[in-house]
Amino acid sequence: MRCVRAGDQIEATGYFARGDKGAPTISMARVVGGSNPANGPVASLAPTTLSASSIIVTIPDITSLPNGNSTYNGVFAAFTWGPFTTSGILARLQVNMCTEFATTGTTVPLSSRTPLIKTFPGYDFNSGWDPDTNTPGFQYSHYARSQIGQSFVVDRAMNLESLVFLVSAFTTVPDIDVYNRTPDPNHHALESRDLSAEVPMRLRLSVWKSPNSAPLLGDVDTSRDLRLVHSQATDQVIVAGAPLEISLSSPLALDPGSYLFTIRLEATTDVVKRRIVTLFVSGKLSGSATRGKFDRSEDKTCSYTPGPDVYPNGKAYFSAFVEPYIDWQSGPSRTYQTLFTEMRAKQQDCIVVGNHADIFNEGDIVMELRGTWR
Q1: Under a CB-based contact definition with an 8 Å cutoff, are residues 222 and 208 in contact?
Q2: Which of 42, 64, 97 is the last residue of a domain?
Q3: 87-100 burial, b for 16+ CB within 10 Å, e for fewer?
């Protein structure tokens, strides 16, 4: 179950750190929500014992709990086998509450196509995805930075059938016009992170080929440096926390070479246009910046360990609109830049919420190409 609502039943399994202690004695189960997960509402529940290592708990209505609200959508349940002592056994369960942008059962299963090239070789989308501190979100919006991109090197002729990536979360606001009229940094108070959203959007996929075989790692202009080999548009529901597969209209024959895959994001419903401002595409950082802000124009003090470049043959890109922001509804008719530049995400160890002076680093979108070798 990807997200839950009040009344849903979820199961937790105990992991015995000091051996099997026998049948569990349920001391407490807690559900935490609210704007701050550390201090949010806590409910003492009465789980049902299924076996010596698993129990079921019914999710309460978080908004009815002390300090409950829908700002923080996470549910954390802690179950104890035995008393609260060193012999107690603890199982943790983390799920998300369904929001107004979420329903159950929308997730489309991935195809059985074969993954051929991955930016993150150690990961299998079919086994499920759980973003951690090493998988930040490259932040995109369908009104400012609305085109994402990832470059690849294809070292063997292939028939491309689909590509897979993941949107880990969305940012929602009460109303886009109110949000844009509210000065920085006060407008951040209007933002809510939605980890369970299911958002209908139009994805315009383009595949570009470089005349050179060297990896694309610097700025590229699609009108000058690359040749378009495929373009298509598909309407899909993007589900936060679930892999998203864009299937090609027909298998695309790719010869060995260097490619850029770009995706243009467009809202297709009025509620999405007015309520959702950004989405976060899971990625892996590899930079070592020492200055703050996206353009690295401010001093910043932070200690962190730079991550390895998981895919040296490519990198994450973005492009933006040519015109400045006028009004939300004008978005579909605005002109996009043909220049794609290095996308950066906040270094997780250095994040200060709402602080644009955070350290931003480059990296790769966690993405894979599926199909058959030729």
Answers
A1: yes
A2: 97
A3: ebbebebebbbbbe
Can you read off the two tokens belonging to residue 306?
């730079």
Whether residue 354 is found in the same domain as residue 273: yes
Beta strand pairing status for 9-13 and 243-254?
unpaired
In degrees and rounded to multiples of 5, residue 335 shows phi and psi of -90, 140
pTM above 0.85, yes or no: no
177 vs 106, more confident: 177
How big is the chain by its Cα radius of gyration, in Å? 22
pLDDT at 92: 54
What's the DSSP call for residue 64?
G
Domain assignment of residue 240, yes or no: yes
**Six-digit token pair at 139?**
């932040």
Domain containing 41: what range? Answer: 3-97
For residue 262, give every residue at least 6 positions away whose Cβ sits within 8 Å of its Cβ, in sequence order, or none: 147, 148, 149, 205, 206, 208, 222, 317, 319, 340
With tokens 């270094």, the residue in question is 347
Q: What is the 8-class DSSP label of residue 321?
A: B
Tell me the pLDDT tens digit for each residue of 98-108. 778 877 666 67
- For residue range 334-356, list pLDDT tens digits in order: 777 899 999 999 888 888 766 66
Compute the average pLDDT of residues 229-237.
Answer: 94
> What does the pLDDT look like over 146-167, one tens digit per residue?
899 999 999 999 999 999 999 9
CATH number at residue 42: 2.60.40
Find out whether 355 and 335 touch, Cβ atoms under 8 Å.
Answer: no
User: What is the tally of structural domains in the chain?
Assistant: 2
The single-letter DSSP state of residue 49 is: E
